[in-house]
Amino acid sequence: MQTATSRPARPGTEGDGTATRRRSTPVPATPEDPGVTRARRVWTAGAYDRIAAGFRHEAEAFVARLGVAPGTYVLDAACGSGNLTIPLARGGARVFGLDIARNLLHEAQAWAARERVGVMLDEGTVEEMPYADGAFPLVVSMFGAMFAARPALVASELARVTRQGGRVAMANWVMGGFIGRMLALHVAYAPPPAGAPSTLLWGDEAALRERFPAEHWDLTLTPRVLTFRFPHSPAGTAELFRASYGPTVRTLEAITEDQRAEFGQRLRELWESAHRAGASGTEVDSEYLEVVATRR
Is this model's pTM higher than 0.90 or not? Predict the structure, then answer.
């Protein structure tokens, strides 16, 4: 999939001097891993762009902190509906977006067309990316790559596609933060497959230092807080998540009717208890970890 607007040149073309677009050694075709199938099923459910709209202001702040120069080749890994992709392209970066969910890529494509910015969008998994070794000086991911089923493969792919001296910048939810607590509620009702690592380990310093080892990376970790803003009451926002957030949609499908009623009540109470008093609509703070890893 590609946008109809003017697209960025592929790395390695038009004098860029980097690696070619595709991997130098193609990955042999194998049956899709069940974890990849599960992830696609989760993120094609609901209407995630309605959720992403509640923290677009933080995505723009994240991009601004990176100080990306115009013309820089950037990969947005697990780009979703474009919360990082579009602000980066708006600033003049040559942006590639990769996501497992085709419906979210259509959302990103439509947004790029409205903004009249050029991006290149590809459907695929961050566990097996279709880009050449060292193709990008900057790879970003905001609450995206952390949800892939096999984090060791994700870390390996991030290292592979990032050139020497380049950066990987991630925003990852943390255990104990608002979304961390909300995801724990989901797991309490619909546990993941046995042995599946927690997605929230991408917000854990010890796990990150294993995934970005010091012999290959300089790692900077910065705790941050974003504020969700939705034009609904807290109860209405809980209903928005029930209808639009893929993990919530699939959790509700997996449990009994009685459990759905109990889960819905607990989800509503979570949003109501965290809501900022006096705010119009819903305002809820949620902690995350900003990760910037520089390739040695």
Answer: yes
